[in-house]
Amino acid sequence: MLDDQIFKIVVNSAPLISIDILIKKGNKILLGKRVNKPAQGYFFLIGGRINKNEFIDNAMARVALNEHF
Questions:
Q1: Residue ranges with strand state E in 1-69
Q2: CA-based nearest residue to 61, from 50, 29, 45, 53
Q3: CB 22 within 8 A of CB 29
Q4: pTM of the full predicted structure?
Q5: pLDDT tens figures, 42-56
Q6: Half-sphere exposure of residue 65, counting CA atoms within 13 Å on the CB side?
C-alpha cells in the first residue's frame, strides 16, 4: 500500500476507480449515514475504492463486508 503522502499525490493527479452498491429488498433500499466530514450526517449508498488488479466482484464483496450495519 502507499503511504499517506504518496496517496495524496495520486488522489490529486489521477482518477480513482470506485463502486457504489445498491442493496434493495422489496421496496426498501439500504443507505448508510456518513459519520465523517465533508458529508457528515448525509445518507449515501455504500461503496469504496477498487484496488489495483482487484476484480470488481471481489471489491464489491470486500466493501460490503467492511460496512458496519
A1: 18-21, 24-25, 28-29, 32-33, 43-44, 46-49
A2: 50
A3: yes
A4: 0.65
A5: 999 989 989 889 999
A6: 6
